[in-house]
Design brief:
The structure is a single chain. The protein is an alpha/beta fold and 242 residues long. Helix content is 30%, strand content 21%. It has helices spanning 66-77, 110-136, 152-159, 177-181, 200-212, 229-232, 238-241, and strands at residues 9-11, 31-35, 38-43, 54-58, 81-85, 143-148, 164-170, 175-176, 187-192, 217-222. The protein has an eight-stranded mixed β-sheet. Strands 1-8 form a two-stranded antiparallel ribbon. The longest helix is centred in the middle third of the chain and has 27 residues, at 110-136. The radius of gyration is 17 Å and the shape is globular.
Length: 242
C-alpha cells in the first residue's frame, strides 16, 4: 500500500484516537473457524432469515473484539452470512495499550506494530476471500464488505475488483488517492468532522475525486463525535448512541 508523490495520502495511519472507546454488552453468537490459515469469526443467519448473501468484515486495530462480534451478529440477524478475519493473529492493539493514556509498556512501537500486521494482512486477505468464496459462496451469492479504520483499504481494494457488489467503511485509515480513483462499485462512507486520521480537507478531496470520476458513493457525516464511533461509541451517551 505504499504511495508515491502522485498518490497522496488521504487517510492517515491509526493513532492515539484509535485507543479510546467503550465496550458494549452482549453475548456473541458466532463461532470461530480457520479459513486460509487465518482465524475467522462466522456469524450465521437464522435459516428462515437467510438471504444467501455474504458480508466480509475487516476489523480495526482492536481486532475481533466484543463490539465487532456483536456488529457481525447484527448483520447476520438481517439475513447475511458474515465472516471476519483476525489479521492481527491474536495480537490486537489492546494487548499492548489498554487506552490512549496507557504507558505501562514504554517500549511498544505503535507504527512498527501497525506495519507488521499490515504486511501480513496485505498478503492474507486475497487468499482468505478466495477460500470464503470456495467454501461458502454459490453462483448466485452476492458479496458486500465493511471495514473500520485499519480495515478501510481492504474495502476499497475489493471495490476495485470483481467480487463484491457494494462496500462501506467507518472512520478510515490508510487510504490514498488511488483507493478512490480505482473504485468500480458503490462505496458508503461513515465519517466524523473531527477525525485525526481522515481530516475534513482530505475527506473533501476524496469526495472531489469520486464526483469527478463519477464513482457511486454516499457520505454519512457526523458532527463532533470521536474517531471510532461506529465500533466503540458510548451507548450510555444519547448523542453517541443515536
Amino acid at each position: 500500500m505504499a504511495s508515491d508523490s502522485k498518490d497522496a495520502v488521504l487517510a492517515k495511519p491509526p493513532g492515539d484516537c484509535c485507543l479510546q472507546g467503550s465496550i458494549h454488552k452482549g453475548e456473541p453468537q458466532g463461532t470461530y473457524e480457520e479459513i486460509a490459515g487465518v482465524k475467522t469469526y462466522i456469524a450465521r443467519p437464522a435459516e428462515d432469515r437467510a438471504n444467501g448473501n455474504i458480508i466480509l468484515y475487516f476489523p480495526d486495530v482492536w481486532g475481533l473484539f466484543q463490539n465487532g462480534l456483536l456488529i457481525m451478529d447484527g448483520f447476520a440477524a438481517a439475513g447475511y452470512l458474515v465472516l471476519g478475519l483476525d489479521y492481527f493473529r491474536g495480537d490486537p492493539i489492546t494487548k499492548h495499550r489498554k487506552n490512549r493514556h496507557d504507558t505501562s509498556n514504554p517500549n511498544f512501537d505503535f507504527p512498527a506494530w501497525t506495519k507488521m500486521h499490515m504486511e501480513f494482512a496485505d498478503k492474507a486477505v486475497p487468499p482468505w476471500i478466495a477460500e470464503v468464496k470456495a467454501q461458502y459462496g454459490k453462483d448466485q451469492t452476492k458479496y458486500a464488505c465493511v471495514g473500520y479504520c485499519f480495515g478501510a483499504p481492504y474495502v476499497c481494494n475489493e471495490l476495485a475488483g470483481d467480487t463484491v457488489t457494494v462496500g462501506a467503511f467507518g472512520h478510515p485509515a490508510f487510504l490514498n488517492e488511488h483507493h478512490f480513483f480505482n473504485l468500480k462499485k458503490p462505496l458508503f462512507l461513515s465519517c466524523t468532522n473531527v477525525d485525526h486520521t481522515f481530516s475534513n480537507e482530505d475527506r473533501r478531496r476524496a469526495l472531489d475525486i469520486m464526483q469527478a470520476e463519477k464513482k457511486t458513493h454516499q457520505l454519512q457525516l457526523f458532527t463532533d463525535i470521536a474517531h471510532g464511533f461506529a465500533l466503540r461509541g458510548d451507548l450510555n451517551n444519547p448523542y453517541d448512541r443515536e
